[in-house]
Amino acid sequence: MSGSMWRGDAVDLDAYLTRVGFQGEVAPDLSTLRRLHTAHVGAIAFDNLDALLGRTAVPLDVDSVQDKIVRQGRGGWCLEQVVLMAAVLDRIGFTFTAFAGRTRIRTGDKFGPALHVALLVELDGERWLHDVSFGAHGLHEPILFAENARLDGDFSFDLLREPTGEHVLRFLRPEGPAELYGFTADVRYPSDFELLNHFCLTHPRSPFNHRMILQRTRPEVRHLLAGNVLAEIRPGEPATFRELGEDEVLSAPEEIFGITLEPGDVQTLRKTLAGP
Fold first, then answer.
1. Considering the entire predicted model, what is its pTM?
2. Is residue 153 domain-resident?
3. Pick the residue with more confidence: 54 or 186?
4. Residue 159, phi then psi, degrees to nearest 5
5. CA–CA dist 159, 72 (Å, integer)
6. Do 96 and 122 contact (CB within 8 A), yes or no?
7. CA distances from residue 232 to 93, 177, 239, 241 in whole angstroms, order as listed
8. What angle do CA 38, 25, 67 make, to 5 degrees?
9. Neighbours of 244 (CB within 10 A)
10. Which of 17, 40, 53, 200 could disulfide-link 132, Cβ–Cβ 3.0 to 4.6 Å?
11. Rounded to an integer, what distance in angstroms lies between the CA atom of residue 85 and that of residue 133?
12. Residue 265, phi-psi category: left (phi > 0), alpha (psi -120 to 50), beta (remainder)
């Protein structure tokens, strides 16, 4: 196995496939790509808990990310999940590049920092947007990277191109389309991820380091916990919201999002959420 920058040689593929519940053989084809995408987002939550636990130097090397997400049963945030997914795809034999997008759904800001990272996978002369780390509003399987592409199903998406040349991924909800992020296909590399990771962990404007954000995408329901507000998104229905009490918030990582935490981490989170 030649050592590419995506470190497919370092990934324990069998352990990863077990972690996400993937059944059957894998090959660098569209069927595998789709099934991997759905399995990953169903099993692995978006999880910003390290920032709340005071860990301001979360490593992005494949060994560390794999240990956390695969072996410890944790989730991970965007950059960690992309590092893991890229290593898995590299190991299987896919060809792809990474790009960075400017999140719009929480801010409506088309000009914020490009903090979200995802992949464009090349297959049979086409490219597919493969994004396993956007969370509760994100894709459950790849969408063709083409102008006016659509992904229809219980949860539907489309891909538009603006006059500026930016592509925009939209989540098509009953209450109206939601712009998730805008992006260009400019290639990003693992070295770029380190800068984004530092911003997300430490910058005062980061949306990820001052309140709990957990997200999980399953076929029947998508969950998003931001602070103490839990959103549930079901097929064909407007999202519902409810406030959780402190004990519910602390049990949510495991009970709702399938995240395994150490008892000491739960106690630290309780102190952090209680504030000074």
1. 0.91
2. yes
3. 186
4. -130, 115
5. 35
6. yes
7. 36, 17, 6, 7
8. 65
9. 16
10. 40
11. 9
12. alpha
Contact 143, 128 (CB under 8 A): yes
d(CA 22, CA 97): 23
Asked if pLDDT for residue 111 goes beyond 80, the answer is no
Distances (CA, A) of 147 to 110, 128, 132, 137, 160: 19, 12, 21, 20, 6
Q: What is the pLDDT of residues 211-245, one digit of tens each?
A: 788 999 999 999 999 999 999 999 999 999 999 99
Is 41 strand, coil or helix?
helix
Q: Would you say residue 122 lies in a domain? A: yes
229, 249 in Cβ contact below 8 A? no
Those residues with Cβ within 8 angstroms of residue 99's Cβ, 6 or more apart along the chain or in another chain: 117, 118, 119, 120, 183, 184, 185, 186, 187, 188
| Average pLDDT of the residues of the chain | 89
Token pair 């794999």 is found at: 66
How many separate domains does the chain show?
1
Q: Domain holding 191: CATH number?
A: 3.30.2140.20
Tell me what pLDDT residue 210 has: 67
Q: Is residue 160 a part of any domain in this protein?
A: yes
Half-sphere exposure of 131 (CA within 13 A, CB side): 23
On whether residue 40 sits in a domain, the answer given is yes
